Amino acid sequence: MQLPNALPIAQGVRLWPQALNPAQQSELLEVVLSTTAQAPFLRPTMPRTGTPFTVTQTNFGTLGWVSDAQGYRYQAHHPVTGQPWPPIPSLLLRLWHAALPDAPDPHCCLVNHYRDGARMGLHQDRDETALDVPVLSISLGADALFRLGGTSRKSPTQSLKLRSGDLLVFGGAARLAFHGIDRILAGSSDLVPGGGRINLTLRRV
Ligand code: MD3
Ligand code: FE
Which of 42, 83, 119, 165 has the most CB atoms around it within 10 Å of its CB? Predict the structure, then answer.
């Protein structure tokens, strides 16, 4: 896997638009969905309030990110099946090393499934100790309006459309940037069955 030069979006943020062509997107989606047979999507709930997320999630890798009434954390087992998360598929590991040639293998691939109407509020990813290693995000399916801010909730934000096949890296100053998904553009893709969007985030924990 060879990646061309990335576009700089903000300090620490690099975008490879359409890094995956439609055939590669289909192949990756097939690998992802078949792997979720061993770790079904579940709907997490918010700490304390127990409000359900509008996205469903699963993980691949030695550690998976989970959220429930007890809080946010990484754990080695699927909370419903009790089984270890399936290994990160080699296709995803190849994309990780193509985008981040100096980084060691990721521990976690969080899989977010957005159906029409799903969103993700502005937040920071700070449940990891490996803040020196960037996060890689891969988008499949429907377009999403992504919001990117700074390291304070009050920092100005910019909006970016994420399309199927886009790769994004968040490192350095951007690793602790506030970010979220404002909405999914319904009808923009039929890659994902049902018309939704799948986002993969690969991280060191
Ligand atoms: C910026 N996911 O799972 S991917 C998440 O599209 C998450 O599902 C969104 O935010 C999604 O935590 C956004 C882009 C992204 C991922 C991780 C980041 C941006 C990031 C970590 C640090 C800074
Ligand atoms: Fe995030």
Answer: 165
Parent domain of 143: 7-36+53-203
Tokens representing 102?
A: 């100096």
Closest ligand to C-alpha of residue 168 is 1
User: What's the order of all strands across the beta sheet hosting 135-141?
Assistant: 7-10, 13-16, 167-170, 135-141, 197-203, 108-114, 56-61
Is 46 within a domain?
no
Angstrom distance (rounded) from CA 167 to CA 56:
21
What global pTM score does this model have? Answer: 0.98
Could you read off the pLDDT of 103-126 as tens digits, one per residue? 999 999 999 999 999 999 999 999
Q: Is the CB of 174 under 6 A from ligand 1?
A: yes
Residue 44 counted as domain residue? no
Taking only the tens place, the pLDDT of each residue in 51-63 is 999 999 999 999 9
Q: Is residue 117 part of a domain?
A: yes
Q: For the chain, where are the alpha helices, taking DSSP H only?
A: 22-35, 90-99
Question: What's the number of domains the chain is made of?
Answer: 1
Sign of CA dihedral 76, 79, 82, 83: negative
Q: What is the CATH number of the domain that holds 131?
A: 2.60.120.590
Ligand 1 binding pocket includes 200 (Cβ within 6 Å): no
| Composition of the chain by helix, strand, coil, percent to 5 | 15, 35, 50
For ligand 1, is residue 177 a contact (CB within 6 Å)? yes
CB-ligand 1 contact for 179 (6 Å cutoff): yes
Residue 177 CA to ligand 2 center (angstroms) comes to 9
